[in-house]
TrEMBL record:
Residues 1-35 are annotated as: Disordered. Residues 16-27 have a biased composition (Basic and acidic residues). InterPro entries: HVO_2523-like. It comes from Salinadaptatus halalkaliphilus. This is Small CPxCG-related zinc finger protein.
Length: 66
C-alpha cells in the first residue's frame, strides 16, 4: 500500500489557488495591485475598474487618485 503522501500527490496548494484566480476574473493577483479599503483583499482589474471579490467594483479607472 502506498504511503498517504503518495496518494495525495495530485492535490497541491497551487491547484486551489488556480480555482481562486478563475473565480476572480482569471487573473493572478499580487501585492503590487490595490487592496480593498473594506476588507484588504487584493483587487483585480476588469474593464477599467478595480474589483474586490467580496465587495464588487471599488475603484473606477477615471478616479483621480489612481
Amino acid at each position: 500500500m502506498a504511503p498517504a503522501d503518495d496518494r495525495r500527490s495530485g492535490s497541491t496548494p497551487s491547484s486551489a489557488d488556480d480555482r481562486t484566480t478563475e473565480i476572480d476574473g482569471g487573473r493572478n493577483t499580487d501585492s503590487t495591485e490595490p487592496t480593498c479599503p473594506h476588507c484588504e483583499a487584493p483587487m483585480f482589474e476588469r474593464h477599467c475598474k478595480y474589483v474586490c471579490p467580496q465587495h464588487g467594483v471599488i475603484i473606477d479607472c477615471s478616479d483621480p487618485f489612481l
